[in-house]
User: Which sequence fits this backbone?
């Protein structure tokens, strides 16, 4: 189904074509028409599904079709913002801003990004000049609203992206405060990778008769990823990692650790071993994070160690390997992490390190993704701990056939 049939027109269509998109992704097919009609949308989708374009393309077209009457406001007053997109992290905000730059290239609409960690002068200057679309993280946006730099009084479209992560990061109060500056009569789009009760409540409170869209995370992401889990003792993980980075056909690897500190320690170790590596986490300043991303994208430093928050939603093509140096405690985080590879139809590999104690986490992961993962015990740094020949004392996994397992080697659980 071509993009035209969804109701998109020039110049948006040319931008889509220039990006090389031939067909809409499922979420785009489902969302674009409704957003164009002005409907509210509740979208259950994670990054990697094309959701940024799913909301950006129709929003740009709508803003273009209905020019704002107050365009020529005196310049000492902030011109009213027409569309606000809230996102949880600086990286995601910057990424959405870049997407809007590309998709909106021929529209003449203006946008800016607002996030903390950098001087606010550049951001306030853009606001003074007047912007149609603001992409922002909640904290800095509230600062600027408080200082009178942002006028949301005539907002037409409000987008809340990655709502579940916003909640996890404690932004709920900020979201309510921001909403208090926004007119009640508006179009609202809410996207979230998961739909826990809290998100449902938020959605019920801020959406009016929304079109509900759900794209299952497994379909676009998991099918193109070869998932392996290496059983390894805690102390041997960095040796195993170095071995894999040297022997696997790694062109670009994203490595996740649980904490910033462990990320720093690991980076030091990998550097000492001669790997071209950088690190991205919330203690690094914006310049350093930006540089790390650029070096990762360009291939100058093709190994990037990251904490979850920093890496959430990173849009880097051709990540050949995602490595879970530590298994995340929530299965959903696992899905988000490995979703950085195997994107847009290419194949990817995810390698997760798992200690014997962490094996129960695998059960949850397999349940969520609805398929077994391949366990590898046979590698140069095998676990000295006794192998699991009897059933673990946790909930049994309906997908597993543990009783038939071979004692070592690579196999399906
Ligand atoms: P997102 O889920 O918004 O982070 O998008 C994931 C990736 O898919 C980005 O690199 C987009 O450029 C790409 N993408 C979005 N829509 C399409 C499409 N219709 N065809 C091909 N790639 C797309």
Assistant:
């Amino acid at each position: 189904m071509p993009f035209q049939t969804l109701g998109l027109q020039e110049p948006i269509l040319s931008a889509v074509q220039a990006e090389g998109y031939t067909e809409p992704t499922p979420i785009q097919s489902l969302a674009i028409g409704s957003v164009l009609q002005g409907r509210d949308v509740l979208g259950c989708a994670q990054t990697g599904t094309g959701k940024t374009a799913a909301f950006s393309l129709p929003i740009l077209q709508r803003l273009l079709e209905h020019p704002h009457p107050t365009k020529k406001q005196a310049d000492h007053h902030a011109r009213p913002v027409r569309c606000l997109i809230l996102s949880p992290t600086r990286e995601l905000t910057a990424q959405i801003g870049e997407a809007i730059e590309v998709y909106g290239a021929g529209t003449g609409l203006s946008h800016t990004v607002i996030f903390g960690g950098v001087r606010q002068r550049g951001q306030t200057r853009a606001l003074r000049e007047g912007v149609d679309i603001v992409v922002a993280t909640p904290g800095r946006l509230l600062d600027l609203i408080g200082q009178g730099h942002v006028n949301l009084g005539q907002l037409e479209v409000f987008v809340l992206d990655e709502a579940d992560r916003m909640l996890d990061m404690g932004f709920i109060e900020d979201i309510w405060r921001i909403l208090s500056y926004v007119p009640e009569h508006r179009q609202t789009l809410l996207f979230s990778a998961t739909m826990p009760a809290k998100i449902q409540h938020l959605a019920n409170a801020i959406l009016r008769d929304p079109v509900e869209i759900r794209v299952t995370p497994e379909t676009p992401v998991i099918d193109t990823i070869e998932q392996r889990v290496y059983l390894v003792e805690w102390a041997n993980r960095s040796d195993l990692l170095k071995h894999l980075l040297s022997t696997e056909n790694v062109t670009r690897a994203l490595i996740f650790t649980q904490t910033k500190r462990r990320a720093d320690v690991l980076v030091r170790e990998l550097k000492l071993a001669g790997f071209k590596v950088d690190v991205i986490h919330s203690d690094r300043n914006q310049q350093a994070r930006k540089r790390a991303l650029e070096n990762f994208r360009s291939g100058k430093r093709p190994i990037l160690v990251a904490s979850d928050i920093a890496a959430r939603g990173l849009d880097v093509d051709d990540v050949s390997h995602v490595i879970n140096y530590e298994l995340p405690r929530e299965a959903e985080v696992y899905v988000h992490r490995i979703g950085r590879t195997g994107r847009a139809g290419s194949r990817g590999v995810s390698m997760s390190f798992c200690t014997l104690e962490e094996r129960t986490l695998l059960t949850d992961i397999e349940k969520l993704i609805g398929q077994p993962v391949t366990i590898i015990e046979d590698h140069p740094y095998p676990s000295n701990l006794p192998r699991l020949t009897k059933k673990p004392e946790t909930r049994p996994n309906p997908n597993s056939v543990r009783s038939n397992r071979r004692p070592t080697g690579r196999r399906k659980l």
Remarks:
- Residues 400 and 413 are 5 Å apart (CA to CA).
